[in-house]
Amino acid sequence: MHVTMLYAAALATALLSARGASAAHSSTATAFAQDAKADDAPPDVPPDVPPANAPAPPEAKAPDAPPPADAPAPMVTRPPIAPEAPAGADAVDNDPPTLAHTPVTHAPRSKALRIDTNVTDPAGVFQVVLWIRKAGMSDYLPMKFVPDKIASGQYSVEVPTALMSTNLEYYIEAYDNLGNGPARAGAPERPLPLKIDEPVVVEKPPEKIIVPNRPKGAPPAITHSAIGKTLKGKSVEIAARLKGETGVSGPVVKFRHLGDTDWKTLPMGNIGGADYTATIPASQTSKDIEYYLEASDQYGNGPGRSGGPEVPYLLRAEDEPPPPPKVVDLGGKRRRAVESAPFKANPLRAAGYFVLAASLGSLTFAAGESYGAWQANENYQHTFKYEGRDDASLLKRANEYGKRAKTFAIIGASTLVVAIVMLIVFPDHDDVAPAAGSGGDGAVLFRF
């Protein structure tokens, strides 16, 4: 019991001398010693009470700047109190943990910072805390270190980006599982300075523009007569004369179909002296073409042009004209040749149309007679029903109309069948065929 009382009193005395705690802290330590004397065993300590033999942490006041949203808010808890050593047993471990830390003195602005430390103790490490604040401020912000999952004794904590805007100060505390500590790197009165550096901007020197030292010269002069039109499906030869005091190099024809955006390149070949030529293939002349010519001298000066991308020559692609009509000389008089029709006459088809016309006439007449018969029958019925007379002449007229309608209907139906058969059997032919390309001014006559 006496050992416990002395241990508690020593812890309270160390607490007051190391941190300069207030009277409230002293009362707390005295009460703790009295509880130890009464119970002869360490009391149960709530998890949020700081270690009995550790200096009191800075007052929990609101920091000058609110902590960032992503900053961790670890709970600084108290380690268990060392039990009283039984008689004859080995002495209890009263040494704080071993803490090894290389101070971080510089860090870039607006980038999260990782701080590492190494803490070991035979009884096990209970807690490692980073106390950090802005330089010149009074309150520290606690951040709990996280143990490394692979390296034993290695701890790390990440300072969020929001705090990395101005110079900082920090120190590290560690306790073991028996309440021994704190082991420190730095101290509340002598924190480790952490300077925040401005990002280094490396200015690249301006690139030197190397202008090739070309010999003096001028692009060749190009003389070309524009080609206005060509026939569709025919190749086109583009000819030009190229003269230059420093030679000719890379003469080409640039061409594209009207409405396209990309130019195609066609090299020009020398055919003797200053004459050059290139041929646009027949496969490219299905549409109107834009083109221009360009060339440089042998030192690369140029290009010289005839036409240009903005003002190209226009080559119209036209259909091939029809052949002219044949002309014969008849006794000094020139006349167009009369050619035979490319088919034989077919008069039976004309007869089929005649029979068809007769059939339609008969059916039309039959329809008229049928209407007359209906009218006469209506008159007869009206006279008999409303006048009470039996007019035989009206009945006779209706019958005559009906007979004629029946006769012409039979004739029309029969001739219609005959006409249809004739038109199917005998094909149709034109009697006159216009000459191709005459434009309506004339026609080629055919003999039958």
Q: What is the mean predicted local confidence, pLDDT? A: 76
The helix-and-strand class reads alpha+beta
Largest sheet: 6 strands, mixed
Low-confidence parts lasting 5 or more residues at pLDDT below 50?
1-66, 85-89, 431-448
Could you spell the SSE succession in H and E letters? HHEEEEEEEEEEEEEEEEEEEEEEEHHE
- Portion of residues within helices: 10-25%
| Beta-strand percentage range | 25-35%
Q: From the alpha carbons, calculate the radius of gyration and give it in angstroms.
A: 59 Å
Give me the number of helical elements. Answer: 4
Distance between the termini: 149 Å
How many beta-strand elements?
Answer: 24
Morphology: elongated
Fold and architecture overview:
- The protein is α+β, with helices and mostly antiparallel strands and 448 residues long.
- 25% of the residues lie in helices and 27% in strands.
- The chain has 4 helices and 24 strands.
- Strands 2, 4, 5, 8, 9 and 10 form a 6-stranded mixed beta sheet that branches. Strands 12, 14, 15, 18, 19 and 20 form a 6-stranded mixed beta sheet that branches.
- The longest helix has 41 residues, at 347-387.
- The protein is elongated and about 150 Å long.
Brief synopsis:
This protein is α+β, with helices and mostly antiparallel strands and 448 residues long. The protein has helices at residues 2-19, 23-39, 347-387, 392-425; strands at 98-100, 106-108, 113-120, 125-134, 141-144, 146-147, 154-159, 168-176, 183-185, 192-197, 221-223, 229-231, 236-243, 249-257, 264-267, 269-272, 275-280, 289-296, 304-306, 313-318, 327-330, 333-336, 339-340, 446-447. Strands 2, 4, 5, 8, 9 and 10 form a 6-stranded mixed beta sheet that branches. Strands 12, 14, 15, 18, 19 and 20 form a 6-stranded mixed beta sheet that branches.
